[in-house]
Amino acid sequence: MTSEQVMDILRERYTEDVTDSGVSHGQSWVVVNRDRISAICNFLKESSDIRMDYLIDITAVDWHPRNPRFEVVYHLHSMSNGCRLRIKVPLEEEQAVPSVSWIWRTANWHEREVFDMFGIRFDMHPDLRRILMPDEWEGHPLRKDYPLEGPDWKFKPW
Amino acid sequence: MAIQTKEITVNMGPQHPSTHGVLRLILKLDGERILSCEPQIGYLHRGVEKLCESKTWQQVVPITDRLDYLSCGCNNHAYAIAVEKLMDIQVPERADYLRVIVSELTRISSHLLWLATHALDIGAMTVCLYCLREREVILDYFEMLCGARLTVSYINIGGVRNDATKEFIEKTREFIEAFPKRIEEYNTLIMNNPIWLGRTKGIGVIPYAEAIDWGLTGGSLRGSGVNYDVRKAVPYSVYDRIDFDVPLGEAGDVYDRYTIRIEEMRQAGRIILQCIKELPDGPISIDLPNVTLPPKDRVTEDIQCMLQHFVLVSKGFEVPKGEVYVGSEAPKGELGFYIVSDGGQKPLRIKMRAPSFVNLQCLPRMCEGSMIADIVACIGSIDIVLGEVDR
């Protein structure tokens, strides 16, 4: 089964939830609604002919000042078919995404990293803590409005 | 009457020689048995992904060297093919072959250092000295090729930085032809050593389905018998024209992960020999004046070249709007670059999918319930580099 066929199945089965899809640079992508992401992921993994059993990566992109501001990006791979799919979930600033860590165990740390770096919350995540930054850190570094220098930083001519 | 023991909490790292960097593990122990293990990472977090957002596309190449600092050639390669895919450019054949030669040499040197430290952790010190001897030779060849030993930045967007000399090619061929004998030497030291077998067989077992579920990559995934190698699954550069095998394990224990990496070194040698045999003549960099630097000797003579050089170094070039994910097989596993461009001279977002990060997540599953000494064998067997975990 190819990625295009997987996209067709998704568009047919989740007509209202798949808002956009396409192929760019030979890579297939779909945009899905936030609240259905874990259902769609579970379908992609469990469906016997698609079997996207390998979660490569979860990450996010900050499109500040565009609205919706964030995009959570999932990369899936199927060990048996060899096809790949990118799933994107647009997200407004205070919104949370359902966690997929109950589908793939590897999602746990990926989601913690996204939370740490972007401040995006994942509902039903078993252990949503910071992972790379110290626990008491303020702010989320990969946001585009994160200050690049401290408040009392002054340029000193040498 | 059963003897009651008190549960104790031990802090292992971040300055511990067997954690391969600044990894900190919080261990709960019942006697010598591990009840729970919690990795704490982030001690080496340098904000690499944030840093990339304020650099031009070409300036990111040396930053990728600092991810997994033992396999810089592969990191450069992964980044370069991702940006080239986004720009829709095809590098010349000679550059592609040179890239594969450097990547595979990097793989051998990375595996050699892995074997050296892994064996040292388990108590086989002699192997360490043997491996470092060969690794030193590879680093010397890198120096011959591009002037740097570790952070090579040899592969950049559009091709490679400088051409390989005949001397480099000949010496590499001689080294690789003699290399299988060296691997035999390592094997005679540890392969049949009862202490080595006792410390590695049946330790840290991850079954097939669980390995996929945990998202393991590289040797750790193939140790569990999953046939997934990015060079075969989604071929890049010239890997689709090259004949090589993907070794697979069965038991998914520390010993299988060790034998697989040993075999991978042999296969890397095979790949290099084929590349040297097929290496075509021709340019080493794509002829696109708005992407690649002009030849250095012309910069001082030709005003056009000087301007081109100046613009490229100070302003960089633009990459068309779009997004792309490209994975490549680094020595530790699938190193992926997810790149988003808004059409500007700087990336909007670069996400590095680091193989060590995902492999480390599985460590508690490997060592919980086993003896405290086994944790050192498990850390060694997943082959992590903290520069890549923390980014």
Enumerate the strands of the largest sheet of chain A in spatial order, edge to edge or round the barrel: 1-2-5-4-3
Shape estimate of chain A: elongated
Strand content of chain A: 25-35%
Number of helices of chain B: 17
Residue share in helices of chain A? Answer: 10-25%
Strand order in the sheet with the most strands of chain B = 1-2-3
> What is the multimeric organization of the chains shown?
heterodimer
- Strand fraction band of chain B? 5-15%
Specify the helix fraction band of chain B. Answer: 40-55%
SSE pattern of chain B, N- to C-terminal:
EEEHHHHHEEHHHHHHHHEEEHHHH
The main sheet of chain A comes to: 5 strands, mixed
What value does the average pLDDT of chain B take? Answer: 89
Hey, which two chains have the biggest interface? A-B, 36 and 36 residues
Distance between the termini of chain A: 63 Å
Taking Cα atoms only, what radius of gyration of chain B do you get, to the nearest Å?
22 Å
Could you spell the SSE succession of chain A in H and E letters? HEEHEEEEHE
Biggest sheet layout of chain B:
3 strands, antiparallel
Could you write a compact summary of the structure shown?
Chain A has three helices and seven strands, in the order αββαββββαβ. Chain A has helices at residues 3-13, 37-46, 107-118; strands at 18-24, 27-32, 54-62, 70-77, 84-91, 96-98, 121-123. Chain A starts with a helix and ends in a 35-residue tail after the last strand.
Written account of the structure:
The complex is a heterodimer of chains A (158) and B (391). With 158 residues, chain A is of the alpha/beta class. Chain A contains three helices and seven strands; from the N terminus they run H-E-E-H-E-E-E-E-H-E. Chain A has helices at residues 3-13, 37-46, 107-118, and strands spanning 18-24, 27-32, 54-62, 70-77, 84-91, 96-98, 121-123. In chain A, the strands form two sheets. Chain A has a five-stranded mixed β-sheet, with helices on one face. In chain A, a hairpin with a 7-residue loop joins strand 3 and strand 4. Chain A starts with a helix and ends in a 35-residue tail after the last strand. Chain B is of the alpha+beta class and 391 residues long. Helices cover 50% and strands 12% of the residues of chain B. In chain B, the strands form three sheets. Chain B has a three-stranded antiparallel β-sheet with strand order 1-2-3. In chain B, strands 6-7-8 form a three-stranded antiparallel β-sheet. In chain B, strands 4-5 form a two-stranded antiparallel sheet. In chain B, a hairpin with a 7-residue loop joins strand 7 (333-341) and strand 8 (349-353). The longest helix of chain B is centred in the first third of the chain and has 30 residues, at 93-122. Chain B is globular. The mean pLDDT of chain B is 89. At the A-B interface, strand 3, strand 4 and helix 3 of A face strand 6, strand 7, strand 8 and helix 14 of B.
